[in-house]
Amino acid sequence: MAELKNDRFLRALLKQPVDVTPVWMMRQAGRYLPEYRATRTRAGSFMDLCKNPELACEVTIQPLERFPLDAAILFSDILTVPDAMGLGLRFAEGEGPIFDRPVRSAADVDRLFVPDPEGELKYVMDAVRTIRRELNGRVPLIGFSGSPWTLATYMVEGGSSKEFAHVKGMLYDQPALMHKLLDVTAQAVTQYLNAQVDAGAQALMIFDTWGGALTPRDYQEFSLRYMTKIVSGLKREADGRKVPVVLFTKGGGQWLESMAEAGADALGLDWTVDIGAARARVGDKVALQGNMDPCVLYASPERIRAEVASILAAYGQGSGHVFNLGHGIHQHVNPEHAAAFVEAVHELSASYHP
User: Fold this and answer.
1) Which value, to the nearest 10 degrees, does the dihedral of the CA atoms of residues 190, 193, 199, 204 take?
2) Bond prior to 291 in cis (omega within 30° of 0)
3) Is 1 inside a domain boundary?
4) What's the Cα-to-Cα distance from 318 to each of 14, 39, 63, rounded to whole Å?
5) What DSSP state is assigned to residue 91?
6) Residue 69 contacts residue 24 (beta carbons within 8 Å)
7) Domain count, the chain
8) In-domain check, residue 2
9) Nearest-5° angle of CA 118, CA 146, CA 288?
10) Residue 1 confidence (pLDDT)
11) Starting from the edge strand earliest in sequence, which strands make up the sheet with 141-146, in order?
12) Residue 36 counted as domain residue
């Protein structure tokens, strides 16, 4: 494999010295870029794009051609795992993801299996291999998965939900069944992430998009417990380097202390948390990734720069901060504003890394 030319992202996650604060954006390969929309049209559909390793590679690298980002993230979707478990995923126009066979009963849970990452999910591994080759050491490649709880919300609801009626109904009425579902999903995610490392991923991220919908007690039992289990089963070294792991629970700011005990190298923060207060709470246990409100990118470049300055000042001196948005970049953001954001992070952060 090619020597890594820019490793500041990996170094920051391990709290090692860096010259400037590294930056990447969640959903950086996406609908806000006209070139992404053109490639997606060529692919035919979102899932066709995910399942075509060459095109997935193309859209992964597109944002790096525009912005001096410090990491690439595999272009894929968190729902590839439940799809490979036989639930029949499709994306309906304007409705988002739909599973034809949602998991609602004990019999449904019994039918679930751990998919073979080089079988049912080989297209993802082929994409990782292709991207890693094409990056040629330019920046590290991030692999990822959804958390078991987040995947379960889609699997049981049959798609997106605002109320979580079915999945929370199962959690409260049949907790043993919910644990069984989360356990098989955690096994699938662990194997999936380890296969991504074998294929060339140099850092891993677990997206717990719906952990913040749980009560504090249920978050510990039904979300964090399974993410901790996954982290303990991950390969943490490849190519003679550590493979850092980031845990991100949207809406999880109140649980940072217990998240910091999960064994990951870094925690992702959304914009509802002050990053300086978060740093004080977790101490030296973990690095932090985040956490500008994505809506700031609708503002003027001057305002974006001021917000970047404010977050850098709140984090303070030293390494251990990867700058990011508090969630994915919105599809209607002007790419010029994303450029102003990335430039501001690199320029304004140098003084925090003497």
Assistant:
1) -140
2) yes
3) no
4) 12, 39, 27
5) E
6) yes
7) 1
8) no
9) 120
10) 74
11) 72-73, 141-146, 203-208, 245-249, 266-268, 287-292, 321-325
12) yes
Copy the structure tokens of residue 69.
């980002």
**pLDDT tens digits along 305-353:** 999 999 999 999 999 999 999 999 999 999 999 999 999 999 999 999 9
**Are the beta carbons of 156 and 103 closer than 8 angstroms?**
yes
- Tokens 């994915």: give the residue: 328
Residues marked as catalytic: 27, 31, 40, 77, 154
163 contacts: CB under 8 Å, gap ≥ 6: none
Considering the domain boundaries, does residue 174 fall inside one? yes
231: CATH: 3.20.20.210
Paired strand residues for 160: none
CA-to-CA distance for 310 and 135, rounded, in angstroms? 32
Are 41 and 109 contacting, i.e. CB atoms less than 8 angstroms apart?
Answer: no
Residue type, 264: A
Cα distance between residue 69 and residue 26, in whole Å: 11
AA identity, residue 169? G
Rounded Cα gap, residues 109 and 105, in angstroms: 6
Q: How far apart are CA 17 and CA 32, in angstroms?
A: 33
Distance CA 63, CA 254 (A): 33
Evaluate if residue 73 carries a pLDDT over 90.
yes
pLDDT of residue 214: 98
Neighbours of 316 (CB within 10 A): 13
Q: Quote the domain boundaries for residue 317.
A: 8-352
CA distance 339 to 321: 19
Q: Which residue has the tokens 């860096």?
A: 18
Model confidence band, residue 19 (pLDDT cutoffs 50, 70, 90): very high
Partners of residue 325 on adjacent β-strands: 292
Give CA–CA dist 47/82, Å, rounded: 13
